[in-house]
Model the fold of this input.
Amino acid sequence: MTTPLRTVPALGPNRALKLPKAVERTLDNGLTVIALRRSSVPLVEVRLRIPFAKAQLARSAMLTQTVLSGTSTMSTVDIAAELQKVGGGLSAGADPDRMLISGNSLAAGLDRLLDILAEVLTDAAYPAGEVSTERARLVDRIRVAQSQPSHMARVALLKRMYGRHPYAVQTPTPEQVEAVGAGALRTLHNDRVHPAGATLVLVGDVNPDKAIAAAERALIKWDGDGYEVELPPTPELKPGPLTLVDRPGAVQSSLRMALPAVHRQHPDHAALQLANLVFGGYFSSRWVENIREDKGYTYGPHSLIEHAVAGSSLVLAAEVATEVTAPALLETLYELGRLASLPPKDEELEQARQYALGTLQLGMSTQAGLAGLLSTYAGFGLRLDYLAEHAAKLAKATRETVAAAAAEYLAPAKAATVVLGDAERVERSLAALTPLTTVEAA
Amino acid sequence: MRIPASKYPIERFTLANGLRVVLTPDRSAPVVGVAVIYDVGIRSEPEGRTGFAHLFEHLMFQGSESLEKLAHFRYVQGSGGTFNGSTHFDYTDYFETLPANALERALFLEADRMRRPRLTEENLINQVDVVKEEIRVNVLNRPYGGFPWLRLPPVMFDTFPNAHDGYGSFGDLDSATVPDAADFFEKYYASGNAVLAVAGDFDVATATALIEKHFGDVPARPAPSRPGFGEADLTAERREAFEDRLAPLPAVASAWRVPDPIGDLAAYLPYVVLAEVLTDGDASRLVERLVLRDRIVTSVGGYIGFMGEPFAVRDPTALILQAHLPPGGDVEKVLRTIEEEAARIAADGLAEGELARTQARMATHLLRDTDAVLGRALQMALLEQQRGEPDLINHLPRLIGEVTDEQIVNAAATLVPARRATIEVIPGGAK
Done:
């Protein structure tokens, strides 16, 4: 009955990371345009990133809901229909660092898409009727978000992580949204939606020089009277007692932990990335193999380094069955502590390194992937060549540097922990493991 | 605007054991996508075993002929790749995206579990627990969980294959056994019931030799005969409501049967386009009317198939429209207005350019979905498995573009209340 085991084939030779060439130009109005040809499909991806730090939260959320709701010559429906004609679409969003308008179209439609984008940027009208419609929709969406456990846990964690920093609250309340009128949106647009410091990324089946010329033709009339706004650096994490947020009747608990981390160019970054992978940053990690594949406590635990302009952090997330909330926390603390106090094995490090290097290649293999990378990096003053530097650092990291990074950043003593769950059922067992404070859901 | 098309090269062949293979080389980036699709899904699971197709998908990752538990994940990710699998109404897929130098390894891993997964009691119990947590995350512990994909089929359909809960009841999951899994594998995970597709950076002759080397000795088993799952169209409206204790706002979804996606593609395509005419973006009929003008819903969406995969589903399936309403919203009014808008298209036709712009946007979506090598491999594997036509991938944008105003008008005329199945969410979570 036993079949002789077959041998897993070796990998072919590793190919050197080949970076696609981007063309970049800063226009006279201060807009930086980065264009890159990838002609895999006859489309073009567009990302416009505008610095938006300290923009008032509710107004910023409302502005992204209404910036495409009409100009002096076009209605919401006109804008959408005109974009559709070239197979296009645009949408807007914001976080505490930036506003982002993203979209795509058939490659042959790029000029038209840029014309419409320019009209929106220079002439968004914020019509009262549309503003009122979108206000009601946003309030409803926030109400739905507030009923989602993932959102509730995130809200509680951000509060723990950031205290009084602007990152602490990233969703406005319905009442704050109700108070935003069309006038405030026009003011915010006039103050902050400007090309200075903004980056436009164009990736697709386009000639980069021609794409930049097209962007210049369309967008040079967008005026540049912006001003720079910087956020203070994020505060240090305060470990302290676990915050238990009560959600009566919950059949799962949402476990979240924040740990310190460093920005992409910090000397520890590559080693920290590898330490995080070994811990819980991909499926073949200690944490996932333990609490999912061995114990069956959870479905999709993950651990991720989050970079924001004012600071980076490492965030763990797992939804675990209510009855195993404390055991899941125990295993999490154990796996963090084990990596913070003992170096990883060679094969664990090599596996994590291959994953980190390989997924760099995967991330650059689509138009949308490249556009996202270029736009995100631009927000941190980086370009694609960062990937080559980073790959070299990943290749050079050793067990010692990774162990040192784990001791520094993955130490469970430094974690700020939040559990959202049914306090009546989980409080006692959690309290056996760690001091805690129970609070009502926001 | 002229609608462009892709020109992906396609190689097809069948191994002696019946495994069908589709290759589409693309040397533009050093990555490969590997997909294996088995022709078995939620509709094929036995009564008393709801959720079994999905549970079995988890078991396919728990070790195989030559590999211990955890080895599959480690080999893929330790090669710099990513992996997953998913269970659908009519198929189950397993896939990896990897740097091109890991192609042979991925082929080995897929062949190894096609020969024999390690089905053990311990792994079964572990994965039943994991699946229960998956169901809690996606259905039980959140508002609108399973709405409408788990809630609407039982309203619309009468027979077990089409109507039952594809995630499964906890009772059925708990009673699953290793012999059940072995039978399921024997019957459905046959070489003759599978398609392998590879897209990306490889040489066709080399890849062909590697596929022969690793899959050639997978035992030959024929595809089981696939029963028809057909049901008669509705002749009277069906309507149900349920209270979602976590949901803060009302919601509603309706479905109408559409023509056979495989047997009658020409009749089916107008419905695929109609869903977009009705709901794609602010210039679509229902967004304009329900969201922007009447303000009786906060969002509305429309798509084909309960998982929103128009070219990955067999008959019977449906066009689905779903909407979320503001507090105290009037579901009757929403349904009436949808009816009115469908009737308006049926009576007055489309506006100048309305169809063309919708088709252009659909072309972008279709092309974009195939940009990633994995998306391309999955799509081609499905088109091979369900239609024997992987090259349809290159023709879909054009075929969508050939749908006429008149066909849309005729399709819209079928969206009448008597053919409609509706599920309504009554919010129990309003604070």
